[in-house]
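Revision sheet: structure tokens.
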Amino acid sequence: MSLTASLIDRLKARPAAKSLVYQAIDLPLVSQAYRRLYSAKIRHYLRTRPVRSLTIEPYNLCNLKCVMCPYQVMTRPRVKMGMDTFRGVVDQAAGLGITRINLTSYNEAFLDDLLFERIAYLKRLGMYVSFFSNGTVTNRDMVERLLACPPDLVVFSVDSADADTCRLIRPGAELDAVRENIALLLRRRGERGMCLPFVRINMTVMEANRGEIRDMARYWRGRCDRFEYYNADNRFGSPPPAGRWSRDGSIYAYPCWRAFYDWGVLSDGRVTVCECRDYDGRQLIGDVRTQGLRGILGSDAWREIRERHLEFRGTEIPLCRGCSWLHRSAFEWWQRE
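Predicted:
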């Protein structure tokens, strides 16, 4: 990690300092100079590799309806991507120089019975593989199969150190069971003398759990490989955080790194420019079954979205309008190497 990326990473972990920096770069004269500098950084990055990683949604099925997630209002049919289609997408991605694949969009990864076969295929091609899980359905058999051909990163989403708050945020999740499932993976990994998968705990911060950050850090640090927390975004109408967290973004819209860094291939083969916000496939830029990833890169739909973001006009894109990530992206590109 470069010095700049390391400094940004530390800044993002300190909400009060981050808020002050947002305020500084929003000053009129500073803002103009900063955006010119930032634009040069982004364009240089994109000249070297337009797409660095790819999210593939193997199966748009989840077992929870978390309060901050629009999965509960998703109208797309539940579709499992077949292995032939999956291998085709991965082969195309490798041909474009993509080396990082995330297997999570609107899904619980462990509900996909092809998960381990998918990971094995990706690892044969030398891909960096990651996925997210809520940890509720993980069992011993899954752990052993995962460790037989481990991905590089597994992120477990755990939002509370209190069982009742856990149920409030993620109805159906039982905190003790989730902790036990994660502990099982970590214990078996250690017993096998392995270092992969790297296990990270993510906490999504909102009003219900804002006072628990220290308790969460105290519990997980030393148990997992890394603990991180983030403010909830507004993909499902989450209210902006209050108090010293109120400046969790610039007042200006910036080119969203997600639109360039992490396209999403939906489980039916359509491609969205934003796997994070586009839960129903409303801002599509193509279809891998008919165009292929290379064809989508040259499409008018992608070119239009790309140019609007690069010109700091992302708010003109219907899906992006009002999204908190446009304003949080004022630092993100410095971490892209």
